Amino acid sequence: MALKTLPFDAAAFIDTPEDAAEFLADAFDSGDPRVINAAIGAVARARGMSELAKEAGLSRQSLYRSLSEDGHPEFATVMKILGALGMTLTVAPATAREPILDPPAPIA
Fold it and tell me: Rounded mean pLDDT of the chain?
């Protein structure tokens, strides 16, 4: 008998504002816009899309479209959504990161 699995949805595990904040902070730390958008979408689903759209001043359809896998929300939209989620965006100096790819070794 084949093993049956269900798709993972992080929204099912986001129960508190602290959970949401930690999840979003990790996404922003990744620096990947797709990861950030997906995380905001998961937090939005955990909160309730209809209620969130109303609080953000967006249509539900616009919210779904912005947070879809193909969505590219404007920064103003992201700020409205974060505000409606009770979140703020904080900026701090970047710490030195390891380069993703090692630079080529000099030729001797």
Answer: 90
